[in-house]
């Protein structure tokens, strides 16, 4: 007689049609609630029975969380992207492609077309780390244990951190996150106390702040929108992602930059990388060092070396140091990916 094992734990499914109703449900169930956006990351957790929420709040029926619209940001016209807007919509939206193409480039390399059709911008920035020990149910630091299995002599850590590792060496897997940081985006979060707006780079946190989370959302909080001010509209953008396979894979590392030049000199610049640490990193020291300098190979070389200062490799990821150095070098110099290899 065949035995059929349940593939998911039982839970109550709620499908609110407004942000207010969704937030009430999240507040009601607290730590027992799970937010369902596109569902791609959520169903992995649920079918593997690693997460066992008592209540799942499905946001797919909330129209106010969808779409791209123009809004006034500090008196100037920017855009607001609903958190439930799919990555495909982000890639194809004419206003994003015209003014903020850096985000379109980043969204277009997320996974595969089928996943981008379902995955959301809010889900992409809020997903959990992909460390296989953690996602396999091992009792590591991030899961409440007292060890990082990846950071042991026997650990498999090829995809893990080279910077700012503190007990946990897992990395943030988002492609859109560094692009949003480079664009100086603002994240709109609904909390019990009302609406809170935070800079993109402050939405993400590392293990020094809370080892159990990659972002600031607390139980009951809801990311509702992402706003992009016109500060970097039409700037010179650069995005590059390195991964093992061109489709599906999460980044081994990626880089995003927004730059404005005066003649051949770098006037304004923002640079961010992901895949190097538990949170996307804005490279402020690099920005300060290259401001006012010519945008050329020499400046790129200097920027790359500065970017990896303090990097500490694990047993199997030393390749990430030259990878990060050269990604930053190319982003600053403006060298297209096809013109160089990452180890050059």
Overall description:
This protein is of the alpha+beta class and 344 residues long. Among the domains are: 11-58, Uridine Diphospho-n-acetylenolpyruvylglucosamine Reductase, domain 2; 236-339, Enolase-like, domain 1 (2-Layer Sandwich). Helix content is 28%, strand content 21%. The protein is built from 13 helices and twelve strands. The chain has a five-stranded antiparallel beta sheet with strand order 4-5-8-6-7. It has a four-stranded antiparallel beta sheet with strand order 9-10-11-12. A hairpin with a 2-residue loop joins strand 10 (253-262) and strand 11. The longest helix has 14 residues, at 320-333.
Strand order in space, largest sheet: 4-5-8-6-7
Overall pLDDT: 94
Estimated helix fraction: 25-40%
Quote the beta fraction: 15-25%
The tally of helices reads 13
Second CATH tier, the architecture of the domain at 236-339: 2-Layer Sandwich
In CATH, the homologous superfamily of the domain at 236-339 goes by the name CO dehydrogenase flavoprotein, C-terminal domain
Q: What gyration radius follows from the Cα positions, in whole Å?
A: 20 Å
- Low-confidence residue ranges: 337-344
The secondary-structure element order is EHEHEEEHHHHHHHEEHEEEEEHHH
First and last CA, distance? 60 Å
At CATH level 3, the topology of the domain at 236-339 is Enolase-like, domain 1
Number of strands: 12
Content-based structural category: alpha+beta
Identify the CATH class of the domain at 236-339.
Answer: Alpha Beta
Rough shape? Answer: globular
């Amino acid at each position: 007689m065949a035995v059929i094992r349940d593939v998911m734990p039982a839970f109550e499914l709620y499908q609110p049609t407004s942000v207010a109703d969704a937030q009430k449900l999240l507040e009601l169930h607290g730590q027992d609630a799970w937010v369902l956006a596109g569902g791609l990351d959520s169903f992995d957790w649920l079918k593997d029975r690693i997460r066992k929420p008592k209540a799942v709040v499905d946001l797919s029926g909330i129209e106010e969380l969808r779409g791209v619209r123009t809004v006034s940001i500090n008196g100037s016209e920017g855009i607001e992207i609903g958190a439930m807007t799919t990555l495909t919509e982000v890639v194809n939206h004419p206003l994003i492609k015209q003014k903020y193409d850096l985000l379109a480039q980043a969204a277009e390399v997320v996974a595969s077309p089928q996943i981008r059709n379902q995955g959301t911008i809010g889900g992409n920035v809020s997903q959990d780390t992909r460390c296989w020990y953690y996602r396999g149910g091992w009792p590591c630091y991030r899961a409440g244990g007292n060890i990082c299995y990846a950071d042991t002599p026997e650990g498999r850590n090829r995809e893990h951190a080279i910077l700012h590792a503190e007990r946990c060496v897992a990395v943030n897997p988002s492609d859109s996150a560094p692009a949003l940081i480079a664009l100086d985006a603002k994240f709109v979060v609904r909390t019990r106390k009302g609406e809170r707006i935070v800079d993109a780079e402050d939405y993400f946190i590392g293990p020094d702040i809370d080892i159990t989370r990659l972002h600031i959302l607390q139980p009951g909080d809801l990311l509702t929108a992402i706003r992009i001010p016109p500060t970097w509209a039409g700037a010179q953008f650069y995005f590059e992602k390195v991964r093992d396979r061109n489709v599906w894979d999460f980044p081994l590392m990626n880089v995003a930059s927004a730059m404005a030049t005066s003649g051949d000199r770098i006037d304004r610049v923002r640079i961010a990388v992901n895949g190097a640490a538990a949170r996307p990193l804005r490279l402020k020291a690099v920005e300060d060092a290259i401001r006012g300098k010519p945008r050329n190979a020499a400046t790129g070389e200097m920027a790359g070396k500065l970017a990896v200062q303090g990097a500490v490799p694990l047993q199997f990821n030393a390749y990430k140091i030259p990878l990060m150095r050269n990604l930053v070098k190319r982003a600053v110099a403006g060298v297209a990916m096809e013109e160089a290899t990452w180890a050059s």
